[in-house]
Amino acid sequence: MFLIFLSSLKLAFDSYTWQLPDTDPIVVYSNIADNCFNYLFIIEMSAKLIATGIIMDEGSYLRDSWNQLDFFIVMSSVVDMLLSAYKLSFVRIMRALRVLRPLRMIAHNPELKMIINALLDSMGSISNVLFVIGIVYLIFAIIGVNLFKEKFFYCTLDMYKLHTIYECQLAGGIWKRFDFNYDSVI
Question: What share of the chain is helix, strand, coil (3-state, %, to 5)?
């Protein structure tokens, strides 16, 4: 957990050094620190793979979805390290995946894992509630269109004295629709 915290601090520090050239000592030491974190995460993942097995048994490393996320983050870091000498756009994308490192903290904290799993399990119910709320909003939007369609206009000369299109055109103004109106549901 402490290693993930330090890695997250290093990522936050990188947001202040992105404008510096690659030869700057701060960027060089930051890259060295990043490689050290990568090696430590690889060692941690390898130890877990050896201890629990890869995928064959029930309690294997890649049978758990949080370990799959951890595996993906570490492997993207490995690919980033292997291709860092090349100036490819793909490498920049892999480097951007380092932002996922703080998510590894979820896998190490059982209480946080339980909360995230509960939120993910409730997404179906939440989407049903959002669907019903959307239908209720649509009903009120249709009522608003039926009651107030073509009622929100104003005169460009004096909107407080000229209330009809006839008065506005007689005074030489233009009868315009308000930007916010009930002429459509959208």
Answer: 70, 5, 30
